[in-house]
Amino acid sequence: MPSIKYTYFDGRGLGEVNRVILAAGGIKYEDVRLHESKWSGMKPTTPMGELPLLEVDGTTICQSNSIARYIAREAGLAGKSSLEQAKVDMIMEGARSLFDKAAQIFILPEAEKAVRKKKLEEKEAPELLEYLNKLASGKGYFVGDQLTAADIALYVNYESVGSLTIALPSLDKYPNLKKVADNVKTNPGIANWLKERPVTTY
């Protein structure tokens, strides 16, 4: 087994999709949680000045989506064919866009935040979730008939955005997505991770 170390801040944010994929795949790794006060000193030593980082037997990979695709392949959660892998990537990008839109609100000038938040809550998020609901099957999977990183990305990004005080529509309004979330949460490895992971504010 390779030696794996995963480094991100002590929160969910952009790092949690990868932690949950690792949990689903039963992949053992060192979960390094960096305090923000130490980031400025570490930043110049990283490949692109960003977190998260994945180290595999001494080789460092950065960019959260690249890491996600790599560990999804290693865990057997990337899709069974090139076409399925492309579909998994498509859903992962769509689910990630929900998080990105929410995160952007918090760097806006204070006077603009409320308007942007309302637009996300009332228009953009419901529209995106409706599209994603149509792409998911009635069995609760985006690709094929078993769990993939696409399902994990939807669940984790939805959960993470909700932790940012963004009022997202309930998944009860999107029955296929509700089944996706249920399938993710009941995966044994993921269920254990959700129970045991460190409690963080975001």
UniProtKB/TrEMBL annotation:
Keyword DNA-binding assigned: no
One Pfam family, short name: GST_C_3
EC identifiers of the protein: 2.5.1.18
Reaction it catalyzes: RX + glutathione = an S-substituted glutathione + a halide anion + H(+)
Organism: Branchiostoma belcheri (Amphioxus)
Name of the protein described by the UniProt record: glutathione transferase
Key words, A-Z: Transferase
One record GO biological process: glutathione metabolic process
Protein's UniProt keywords contain Ubl conjugation: no
Alphabetized GO MF terms: glutathione transferase activity
Segments forming domain GST C-terminal: 81-202
Domain GST N-terminal: 2-79
Broad class of enzyme this protein falls into: transferase
